[in-house]
Design a protein that fits this description.
Strand content: 35-45%
Structural class: mainly beta
Shape: globular
Helix content: under 10%
Number of strands: 25
Largest sheet: 5 strands, mixed
Length: about 300
């Protein structure tokens, strides 16, 4: 069984015997509110006899982030064209029932966005802190108009937020950290990797910021003025503080990747390095742009790390 109205979806694996698809752009061009959850053994997946559960999101979404929580369930962020900040976030229970989150904090100047990166920064019971980075604006001129993505390089600031969510209370606090970004261009990108390094440090890798004949190429761009700008840098974001009072301490460009890539996988390994694999090198129908390369990034030690002395 396939989600018939949904050909682009945010999704993940829940263990090794469940698949979840949610939201995405429908064939009509509008976002979907469908949650499709299939659970079964590997043999049942192969035979097509898995148990399928259909549920719905509170808001149709495309390009949303899905952050899975230690106690089960997930926080879903972005991808809705609604200008209401209380539509930005919803929580899925372990049984995939959606519930609303009422936001406070830096919401006065909120504008819709999606295709961003999200990572779980802290978790304590039902209280969780997410870091949200990058992405593109999502604009809908009227209720009947198709939502359209805005080019990330046209953003006036670098998009970087912390989102503190209490899943039991249904509340959240959004804090905008863009004032602490010395080089906002580092955050104006989509399909980049965001990986926790521990100690409130995060690796921000690759992505793209301009498609099709960009006017000004980014310093990290490995594309061209015809096809677009695909990025090969890795930056370290370091945070400190508590919800509502986080500070962005540093944004350091720490390395250059072996090849520019976006939509790649980036995972922290037990030895502290980051494995980057796959992704695309350009937007094209050609299979040649799919990367088969993997590389390991060894991030610099934090200054407070005793091993750095």
């Amino acid at each position: 069984m396939e989600p018939s109205d949904n050909y682009i979806a945010s999704g993940t694996l829940d263990g090794d015997t469940a698949v979840v698809l949610l939201g995405g752009r429908q064939g009509s061009g509008f976002p979907s509110n469908r949650v499709w959850h299939a659970r079964g053994s590997s043999d049942e997946f192969v035979s097509g006899t898995v148990t399928v559960v259909d549920k719905t999101l509170l808001h149709p979404r495309m390009g949303a982030s899905v952050t899975w929580l230690p106690e089960g369930g997930a926080v879903v962020v972005g991808g809705t064209p609604s200008s209401d900040p209380n539509a930005l976030v919803e929580v899925l229970s372990p049984s995939f029932t959606a519930s609303a989150v009422t936001l406070s904090g830096d919401i006065d100047d909120y504008t819709p966005f999606g295709i961003h990166a999200a990572v779980l920064a802290r978790s304590n019971g039902t209280q969780h802190v997410l870091l949200l980075a990058g992405g593109a604006g999502l604009e809908q001129e009227s209720d009947g108009a198709l939502p359209e993505w805005l080019p990330p390089y046209k953003a006036t600031t670098g998009r970087l937020y912390t989102l503190a969510v209490d899943t039991a209370a249904g509340t959240g606090m959004l804090q905008n950290l863009d004032a602490g970004i010395p080089s906002p261009a580092r955050l104006r990108r989509v399909f980049a990797g965001l990986t926790s390094l521990g100690a409130n440090r995060y690796a921000w890798s690759g992505g793209y910021d301009q498609l099709g004949k960009p006017g000004t190429l980014d310093a990290s761009c490995k594309g061209d003025t015809e096809s677009g700008c695909y990025l090969d840098d890795v930056s370290i974001l370091a945070l400190s503080g508590d919800p509502g009072a986080f500070q962005l301490n540093t944004v350091v460009t720490a390395a250059t990747l072996g090849e520019a890539r976006f939509g790649h996988a980036a995972a922290a390994l037990v030895d502290g390095t980051v494995l980057l694999a796959g992704g695309l090198r350009a937007v094209s129908a050609s299979s040649d742009v799919v990367s088969s390369a993997a590389e390991v990034f060894n991030p610099p030690l934090a200054a407070e790390d005793p091993c750095a002395q």
